[in-house]
Design brief:
The complex is a heterodimer of chains A (75) and B (217). With 75 residues, chain A is mainly alpha-helical. Chain A has one domain: Arc Repressor Mutant, subunit A (Orthogonal Bundle), CATH 1.10.10.10. Helix content of chain A is 51%, strand content 11%. The longest helix of chain A has 13 residues. Chain B folds into two domains: 132 residues, 3-Layer(aba) Sandwich (Glutaredoxin); 45 residues, Antioxidant, Horf6, Chain A, domain 2 (2-Layer Sandwich), CATH 3.30.1020. Chain B is globular, with a radius of gyration of 20 Å. The chains are: A mainly alpha (75), B alpha+beta (217). At the A-B interface, helix 3 of A face strand 2 of B.
């Protein structure tokens, strides 16, 4: 699913993916925690990294400060 | 004098080669074929949304989806329709047939993926994709292709059987005979040297001859 809607809000899938990245996680761990298929995690992460909401740190994926703020706003 | 009509050459994917990669808009967002690595993929096309044969096929694909998941296989549909059309159609299928379509569907309005995979058969239709199935393994290699015409719905039981056969081949290094089903005997690859041919009959397989030996798994 696309992660960010036209109005800037996060989709349900994006929230699940980002929540699984509170701490650094591998894509497999994110898939297991979110219950979403791995292909969807890869696609979502690509979009979230481009939007600056998630970053790669030491080979793992984690929310950026901007990502945490955005998720907190929409919870 | 007979007129020779020149047919355009269309690129076709090849079995045993890496499946051509693509990025496409789908009902699950922008996806790349690469996103599926590590899983097997059944990439399949249908002629158009809101048509009866395609609807029966989508219901049938949705019904085998749980069995495919057990085999690490993801479904990925495609037609030359918009995402809005796809969304409306899958909602309609759920409403009218009680079947939820959980797999993504490519909206190939620019025919990019359809052309890459040779899904359009101009002799049938220049504006619709035929009923194609591409089986791509977990390493991204194209393992099987099936092409059906517009008029004829596919047999999803055969697609499941094909997946079982390919995965059995990979796991055990064997081939599968005609109409093979899981649990049936499999074919031991024939020997390639005269010495091995001599030995084959002593190896304990069920052999009709040196080139035709079977075994149970």
């Amino acid at each position: 699913m696309p992660c960010i809607r036209a109005d800037g809000s996060l989709t349900v899938a994006a929230k699940k993916v980002m929540t699984a990245m509170e701490k650094p996680a591998t894509l497999d761990e994110v898939a297991a925690a979110s219950g979403l298929p791995l292909y969807q995690i890869r696609s979502s992460v690509r979009e979230l990294v481009e939007a600056g909401l998630v970053e790669i740190r030491d080979g793992a994926y984690v929310m950026t400060d901007a990502g945490r703020r955005k998720l907190a706003e929409q919870r | 004098m007979e007129t020779v009509v020149e047919q355009p050459t269309v690129a076709m994917p090849r079995l045993g080669w890496p499946a051509p990669n693509f990025e496409a808009e789908t009902t699950h967002g922008t996806l790349r074929l690469d996103d599926f690595r590590g899983s097997w993929v059944i990439l399949f096309s249908h002629p158009a949304d809101f048509t009866p044969v395609c609807t029966t096929e989508f219901v049938a694909f949705a019904q085998i989806a749980p069995e495919l998941k057990k085999r690490n296989v993801e479904l990925l549909g495609l037609s030359i329709d918009s995402t809005y059309s796809h969304i409306a159609w899958v909602r309609n299928i759920e409403e009218k047939f009680g079947v939820k379509i959980t797999f993504p569907i490519i909206a190939d309005l620019d025919k990019k993926v359809a052309m890459l995979y040779g899904m359009i058969m101009p002799g049938e239709s220049k504006t619709e994709t035929s009923r194609c199935v591409f089986v791509i393994d977990d390493k991204g290699i194209l393992r099987a292709m099936i092409y059906y015409p517009l008029t004829t719905g596919r047999n999803t039981d055969e697609i499941l059987r094909l997946i079982d056969a390919l995965q059995t081949t990979d796991k055990h290094g064997v081939a599968t005979p005609a109409n093979w089903r899981p649990g049936d005997k499999v074919i031991v690859p024939p020997p390639k040297t005269t010495d091995d041919a001599e030995e084959r009959l002593k190896e304990g397989y069920e052999c009709k001859d040196w080139y035709f030996c079977m075994k149970s798994l």
